[in-house]
Design brief:
It is a single chain. Helix content is 32%, strand content 39%. The chain has one domain (21-118): Anticodon-binding domain (Rossmann fold). By secondary structure, it is of the alpha/beta class. The chain has 4 helices and 7 strands, in the order βββαβαβαββα. The model has no long low-confidence stretch (mean pLDDT 75).
Length: 122
């Protein structure tokens, strides 16, 4: 599935993101010294299953990215810091502020696909 690459400037701050798929988005937040391109495997696996994915590729700090996604009421945030990337895992951050760390990629994809399919409120 083809992804789009977009930028918008709001109050002097430029946000950069790219997305793929359809429906309610899963927002991927990269941390550490990496870039949003570290999410290519997750982006491909999720968008192949029809899940809309947005990668926050802005230069904002992790806490600002999380706060922005929470204000937008994004149901799933996947966070990948350096440790997650090296372990082939992600961390979930849910709308209510709870977090699940070190989730293997295949398990994360399965959880998201099942929640979307079953219309689970997260």
């Amino acid at each position: 599935m083809q992804s789009t690459d977009e930028r918008v400037t709001i109050q002097g701050h430029t946000l950069h993101w790219y997305e793929s798929g359809r429906g309610t988005p899963v927002v991927l937040l990269h941390g550490g010294g990496g870039t949003g391109r570290a999410f290519q495997a997750q982006l491909d696996r999720l968008s192949e299953r029809g899940i809309r994915v947005q990668v926050d590729a802005s230069a904002d700090r992790m806490q600002k990215k999380i706060r922005t996604a929470q204000k937008q009421k994004v149901p799933f945030m996947l966070i990948a810091g350096d440790a997650d990337v090296s372990e082939g895992a992600v961390s979930f951050r849910y709308r209510d502020g709870s977090q699940k760390n070190g989730v293997p990629l295949a398990e994360a994809v399965a959880e998201i696909v099942a929640a979307v399919r079953d219309r689970v409120q997260v």
